[in-house]
Amino acid sequence: QVQLVESGGGLVQAGGSLRLSCAASGRTFNNYAMGWFRQAPGKERDFVAAITTTGVSTYYADSVKGRFTISRGNAKNTVDLQMNSLKPEDTAVYYCAGALSWPVRSDTVRIWGQGTQVTVSS
């Protein structure tokens, strides 16, 4: 079984950057398509970005396209989310997720990380 642990969250000013990292344990990591989701207080958990098992294809929510980049390093069992030009509306708890099918959706996720807080100030 795979377990996911996020890191890299924190407080940043609008226009700044953060890089989130998700570390996976378990030797089946490269069988999972990976994704990032986020949830703001009082709102549902929303899709942010996804990457295929080999990392050759990516998909982004329109709200982050051009600003965020998802990547994975299968040899290191990691998936990262580089976030640039951050806006206050990006403030949320960010979750790493793994799925055994494509596309990655909330209802297809099999493994969730515990989440990491990202706060963007004005």
Which ranges are low-confidence, i.e. pLDDT below 50, for 5 or more consecutive residues?
A: none
The helix/strand class is: mainly beta
Number of helices: 0
Query: Largest beta sheet, briefly?
Result: 7 strands, mixed
Approximately how much beta-strand content do the residues carry?
A: over 45%
- Number-wise, the strands total 11
N- to C-terminal distance: 40 Å
Radius of gyration: 13 Å
| Oligomeric state | single chain
Rough shape?
globular
- Average pLDDT reading: 96
Task: Write the element-wise H/E pattern from the N-terminal end onward.
Answer: EEEEEEEEEEE
Tell me what the structure shows.
This protein is mainly beta. The protein is built from no helices and eleven strands. Strands 2, 4, 5, 6, 9, 10 and 11 form a seven-stranded mixed sheet that branches. Strands 1-3-8-7 form a four-stranded antiparallel sheet, with no helix packed on it. It is globular, with a radius of gyration of 13 Å. The N and C termini lie far apart (40 Å). The model has no long low-confidence stretch (mean pLDDT 96).
Kindly summarize this structure in a few lines.
This protein is mainly beta and 122 residues long. The chain has strands spanning 3-7, 10-13, 18-25, 33-39, 46-51, 58-60, 68-73, 78-83, 92-99, 109-112, 116-121.
